[in-house]
Amino acid sequence: MATTETIHHHLHLHRHHDHHNTINTHLKQKTSTKSTRLAKSLSNLLHLHIQGSAQKSLSNVRFEEKKDTPTTSPKEDISDKWRDMHGSSDWNNLLDPLHPLLRREIIKYGEFSQATYDAFDFDSFSKYCGSCRYNRHNLFEKLGLNKHGYIVSKYIYAMSSMKVPRWLEKSRLLENAWSKDSNWMGYVAVSDDEESKRIGRQDIVVAWRGTVAPSEWYEDLKRKLDPIGPHGEAKVEHGFLSIYTSKSDATRYNKSSASEQVMDEVKRLVQFYKEKGEEVSLAITGHSLGGALALLNAYEAASALPGLPISVISFGAPRVGNIAFRDELHQKGVKTLRVVVKQDVVPRMPGIVFNEALQRFVYITGSLEWVYHHVGAELKVDVRSSPYLKHRFNLLGFHSVETYLHLVDGFHSSSSVFRSEARRDLALVNKACDMLVDELRIPQSWYQPANKGLERNAHGRWVKPKRDLEDIPSPIGEEHTLVPEMENNFEMLEAL
Hints:
This protein is an alpha/beta fold.
């Protein structure tokens, strides 16, 4: 099961490539480890070979010209189209070709998902390893996401009841760590007045953090389905449910579960805006494991808040439950859009063999309670479509959020070439992997704190800096949330 411990452990491995090379490099080594053998066997099983495709030349791409252009297009008013963008018609006739307004919305939610990685403290020498590096008031400012017009109202912490997180075993400061059992798992945000006017409603967003090491998924998944819901027919993967629902009175950050934390905040915000007579929607996003948690969150929200428009926009998400789980989500009105990179193995897990393909044999297998099934509509993009990406086997690169967003930005239709007018900064693709062609001269895995987190003190010595008091994690009970009476005053909110 790819639990929270796997996430933190592999974020550390992934980011610190000076100690540990990328998965792609490991696959080239002659030493045959369990994970590399697994990756190669998965490649063969899933037919993910892409070496044979011809790499397009960049000679006619004119990359230099892109450096002097904006990274986004001007925002457009979608207030009269928001229900279509939110999936009211299951995105029929909007995905292939991809509607430009929908593309913008998908990228917006994808950047909210990426934020959960960019702000995560993966430093094993940090006292706060496993927390968010910033407080919720300046999270979007620090990450350059103020442009989207959302305000973070709540942080979410999670734990797993299954075993002690492995990432903690890698911490050099476990005895003095900020938390021995919990970690930062995401956040709740809400659109400000200007953005709400543009998109036609008050948009509540929940962003869940995921994992980045797909080679470990098969080893960690327990492949056990647990019942969810009142009838017991709908079942979901045991480990995902454990992360979403685990709590302990002995912890500082998980006296309430991630489920309870997020639902308390969503209910509070929905009630506040409905009492003001405003339209409200809930959008839940996540990458990898985060996409699985997003579906569990949507299932619970739809049960507790019937009639609320709820959509899930996930990236590289695995299967979560059985066909009954899928059907109940559909009956509850949850709209799900799964963005999938063709070469990514994680969306094929769990259930590489026992999946929705067996539905044609339902007269033999019965109700398929033990078979995993995907949910919702799918937008599939292909690494081979981009002239900027290396066309070689790279598990980590295929699964990266930034690879996903690059391909969505360049996708027009399944029958057309990569969009020449795609605007997202190409350098972002290599933040945490090695996917860009060498001609672009962008270093691999370049995203890291300056000087790896060390600063010079007044005596000129290099030391670990102390966090600002406002950026030190506070226990759940002490964390402040948005004051509803101040919701319409953005400046006052920022001063809270």
